[in-house]
Amino acid sequence: MQPLRIGLCGLGTVAQGVLAVLKKNQQSIDARAGREIRVARVASRTARPELDLLGAQFSTELNDVIEASDVDVVVEMIGGEDAALKLVRRSLELGKPVVTANKAIIAAHGNELLALASSRQTTIGFEATVAGGIPIIASLMRALAGNEIQWLAGIINGTSNYILTAMAESGQAFDTALAEAQRLGYAEADPTLDVEGIDAAHKLTIMAALAFGIGFRFADVYTEGINAVSVEDIEYARQLGYQVKHLGIGRISDAGVELRVHPTLVPQQQLLASVNGVMNAILVNGNAAGDTLYYGAGAGALPTASAVIADLIDIARGLSLPPIATSEGETRILSIEDVECGYFLKIPSLDKPGVFAKVATILSDQKISIEAAIQKEQAIHAESQHAWVPIIILTQRVREGVMNQALEAVQQLPEVVGEITRLRVEQFVDA
Question: pTM, whole model, 2 decimals?
Answer without folding.
Answer: 0.94
